[in-house]
């Protein structure tokens, strides 16, 4: 089947390429596209080369997929070597790789990145029709009357045909030349959309998208700042609460110490020695017992009621002998209880009668 346009595309852009082929052929422009135009059993590479050699225009569906395809580079290189007109249609906003830039940077592009793509495909079909019409080769005179020439037969030299001035007249020649100049000016005034010079509508759309992206980024930043501020406020409040609790605990501890000292002062009653007798201060057993219980209560070692499982009760004699009776959790608590009782002024001896589960002999 005769064709004029070779469609070069990456297989990942097959949907766009097939839509392009359908649009061009609906406008009367015959296309060569793989794999449709490759016959069964033929060599794939040879079919590609034949398809390019028999075409007049190559339409390159350009995208990041085409950028990365080595087959696209070889097809474009073949088209350049055969003198085909190359028209890239850009469907993705990417720059060409260095390998493709060498071939397609001098040509004009059709920018089809803005939807809908169908309008760009119809515009491309119209311009390719004009391009093919202006570069249509002169039809050769058939050798046999009534016979049709081959679709891509090489035109015969003009000198072998009837002179143009005799067949068409001078006015027709001048009119054709003027029409060609006018058509060239029109095509030059309306070139393919350049990658570096997008249309104003495209620029406006890009600016609007940039503004939306910037607004979204700013909203996320504001939200993140609010979250960080709330987190800092919560951490500050926790620190203040901890400081307040520590201060209250310190004041409570100071109050307990002051109360213990006051009780100790009230418990000590001075003893006046009789004449000719040894002067000695006799401690008050009740005061000493109160002080021992105060120290043990502060450490949680004092049994304060019958409901308490753990703890000791304190007994003291007038001679300062302290007896500790009860049950504690371990030997460390037992030793600590004995030590605290022995630190009280006036205590002469500590007798522990403390039961510790660690010393039990399970049967």
**Helix and strand succession?**
EHEHEHHEHEHHHHHEEHE
Overall SS class: alpha/beta
Proportion in β-strands: 5-15%
Low-confidence stretches: 138-168, 185-198, 276-280
Give me the side-by-side strand order of the main sheet: 2-1-3-4-5
Largest sheet: 5 strands, parallel
Distance between the termini: 106 Å
Number of helices: 11
Mean pLDDT across the residues is 80
Number of strands: 8
Q: Estimate percent helicity.
A: 40-55%
* Outline: rod-shaped
Radius of gyration (Å) = 53 Å
Outline the structure in words.
The chain is α/β, with parallel strands linked by helices and 363 residues long. The chain contains eleven helices and eight strands. The chain has helices at residues 14-26, 44-53, 64-67, 70-81, 98-104, 117-134, 164-167, 170-189, 200-267, 285-298, 331-342, and strands at residues 5-8, 31-32, 57-62, 85-90, 110-111, 311-316, 321-327, 349-355. The strands form two sheets. It has a five-stranded parallel β-sheet with strand order 2-1-3-4-5, with helices on both faces. It has a three-stranded mixed β-sheet with strand order 6-7-8. Strand 6 (311-316) and strand 7 form a beta hairpin. Helix 1 (14-26) packs across helix 6 and helix 9 (200-267) packs antiparallel against helix 10. The protein is rod-shaped. 20% of the residues are buried.
Write the layout of secondary structure elements.
Blueprint: E1 5-8, H1 14-26, E2 31-32, H2 44-53, E3 57-62, H3 64-67, H4 70-81, E4 85-90, H5 98-104, E5 110-111, H6 117-134, H7 164-167, H8 170-189, H9 200-267, H10 285-298, E6 311-316, E7 321-327, H11 331-342, E8 349-355
Parallel strand pairs: 1-2, 1-3, 3-4, 4-5, 7-8
Antiparallel strand pairs: 6-7
